[in-house]
Request: fold
Amino acid sequence: MRIGVVGCGKMASALLGRWLAAGLVQPDAVRACTSRPDSAGQVRARFGIDCGLDAASTVDGVDLVVLGIKPQQLDALPTLPLAPGTVVVSLLAGVTTGRLESLLPMARIVRAMPNTPVRVGLGLTGLVCGRSADDAAIAQVRPLLAATGQVVELAEAQ
Reply:
């Protein structure tokens, strides 16, 4: 599975670190981007992955996208060249699956709300499926999130 991480801050890095440690993904199958060159360098050094500043090239040709930007950065996000059916896992607090589906109509949207213990594999992640997310999308996301701790599927209102 090829993964693109748009916004590789604390939470996205915590998830990515667990996935790499568990062998669920390989460093050469992950690309990331950040908003600053210094943080991109830190991500490259920490994980041994390709990390730059361009979101479009980060997600080009990947199977799964992790949106780890801050919610207030969503409006400034450039158009992402997603293949139809690409799974997008949103870590954006307060941004509904409906809003993401309107911004990324070709994607299958899943919203994940992890807590900080995911860093050590003892986390709890609330998982919300958008209308576009099918069983195959959940089957792709669930093992990744399970490597970080417990996963609880919830209704979005919860």
In short: The first strand starts at residue 3 and ends at 6.
